[in-house]
Hints:
By secondary structure, the protein is an alpha/beta fold. About 40% of the residues lie in helices and about 15% in strands.
Amino acid sequence: MGRIIAFANQKGGVGKTTSAVNIAASLGLLGKKTLLIDCDPQGNTTSSVGVSRKTAVTVYDLLIDRAKAEDAVITTEFKNLDLIPANSSLNGAEFELVDVEKRESRLKDALGQLKGKYDYLIIDCPPSLGVLTINTLVAADGIVIPMQCEFLSLEGLSQLVVTIRQVKQRWNPDLDITGILLTMYNGRLNLTMEVVEELKKYYANKLFKTPVARSVRLTEAPGWGKPIVYFDRWSKGAIAYVEIAKELVQRI
Ligand SMILES: Nc1ncnc2c1ncn2[C@@H]1O[C@H](COP(=O)(O)OP(=O)(O)OP(=O)(O)O)[C@@H](O)[C@H]1O
Ligand SMILES: [Mg+2]
């Protein structure tokens, strides 16, 4: 049975999409059959693997029960990597699901049919704790939290942990934090090291061993519609994400 992992953090621009895309592609390269699911109306994950956001069937159609999950799956040009795309139509979901019964488990129900076909199902979340992110947390076996080493990130992490606890209590008792991933990392900054020390006090066993350093190549790759392992295989970003994918496989 495939493992569903949500890449979540309600803070914007912390590296959720970059990490979800590049870890999913690295898992594929390591021989794991992987499905990447874009759950953000921005559709950044979709374009990052070279797929047009104008595709006919998206994750939105699954949430409102208009299509089956397998009809939304697109095969990418990358090894062992499929995609369920998203686009701005997903903005409607937040409102349209308000009155729907069991609205928090729509994604879980939709993905049920696909779980057996993949080793990993990697979900990219939007920067909010609304109904879309709740759907991903209800569906997930584990959560990866990408974060930057700043003090406000620690406050954001506390809020996210409260939400995770609530989802665990109400809907998904087995949900767990698979790992906390440090992104845009600069180990020479004092602030970075202070935040890392603080994180280690509470989450020592959750921190991924490899942080992702700041890298221009990682910002360039999405413009070419390619994950970093296909854009510049031996760049430091690619090497880091493959290491992190290996660690993820050991963890879940
Ligand atoms: N390691 C890195 N080095 C340099 N730039 C990075 C790195 N990781 C991500 N970025 C850049 O930072 C910006 C935000 O990253 P990304 O889109 O992955 O974050 P996000 O959390 O998905 O954002 P949002 O909350 O809007 O969905 C992007 O321009 C991305 O290219
Ligand atoms: Mg994103």
